[in-house]
Amino acid sequence: MRIEGGNELREIVPAQEVVYGKEDIAELENASIKVQNVYDKALAMLRRYLPQLVSSGPDDHNSTCTQSITNQGVFQKWIQGPKGWKCIGYEWQTDVDPNSEQAYLPNAQLQSMILQIMIWSQFEKIILLHPFLGQEAFYNKEELETISSYFVPTYMSVTPLIELGKPYKKHKTRVPIYQELISAPSLLIQSEGIPLKGTWMTGVYINQANFQGIGPYIKNSNGCRTFMEALIN
Fold first, then answer.
1. Which end of the chain, N or C, is surrounded by fewer C-beta atoms within 10 Å?
2. Beta carbons within 10 angstroms of residue 122's beta carbon
3. Are the C-beta atoms of residues 84 and 26 closer than 8 Å to each other?
4. What is the pTM of this model?
5. Are strands 84-93 and 73-81 parallel, antiparallel or unpaired?
6. Can you tell which superkingdom this protein's organism belongs to (predicted)?
């Protein structure tokens, strides 16, 4: 297990395993690739029209090249909520080995949230207007099903979430970003005699458009992550 918070990351002795069913891993493997394909497609559009908001990877914070984000290491963040698995965002990484220290882009969360907003906005408009427009939509049927199943409503205004009566969280980014709050399971574990409490999150490692495994972790109220071992049952 390792604890990560801010710029600090330290190794500690494994304290507890988190159990996943084989069906969970199969779904995450399949869904994470589909989700990444949607991210790639949206990012290509973002690069075209708003290149100043896009970083191409860990080695180039300002490039506007058309390289997909799956050419870099990606760490997707998943929650198993009441309505199944949901992806709430991603981070770029310089190394996708779960046992290696990870480096994150400084604007990765903002860019991830901008993509979430863009994807969800497009999804809502396509669902609402496509039957009347008769034109080919930006996302195909499979991609729309992926967004509906695994993405989370995300906006720059809290109004839509309030109108829908959905719980929400405000992300700590430079611009106000609001996302539906997905209820994550709570965990309490012991590490070296110290109780650690937080919400159970599941990281999914993607590299070169391939599923590389999962990295379960507890996230506390301060955003500190405690990574754990995954046991497949």
1. C
2. 20
3. no
4. 0.82
5. antiparallel
6. Bacteria
Round to whole Å and give the CA distance between 128 and 88: 23
Distance CA 105, CA 93 (A): 8
Backbone angles phi, psi at 43, to 5 degrees: -65, -35
162, containing H or E segment: helix 159-163
The closest of 107, 138, 134 to 124, measured between CA atoms, is: 138
Task: Tell me the two tokens of residue 193.
Answer: 């005699």
Q: Which residue is listed with tokens 């408009």?
A: 125
Report the alpha-carbon distance of residue 183 to residue 223 in Å, rounded. 16
- Residue 167, token pair as written in the block: 């719980």
Encode pLDDT of 200-212 as tens digits: 999 999 998 899 9
Contact assessment for residue 155 and residue 163, using Cβ atoms and an 8 Å cutoff: no
Q: Express each pLDDT in 106-159 by its tens digit.
A: 466 788 898 999 999 999 999 998 777 667 889 999 999 999 999 999 999 999
Cα-based torsion angle of the residue sequence 192, 194, 195, 196 in order, rounded to the nearest 10 degrees: -80
Rounded Cα distance, 73 and 36, in Å: 11
218 near 225, Cβ under 8 Å? yes
Pairing of strands 194-207, 177-180: unpaired
Residue with tokens 């599941």: 202
74 within 8 A of 206, measured Cβ to Cβ? yes
- CA pair distance 132, 137, nearest whole angstrom: 11
In angstroms, how far apart are the furthest CA atoms of the chain? 62
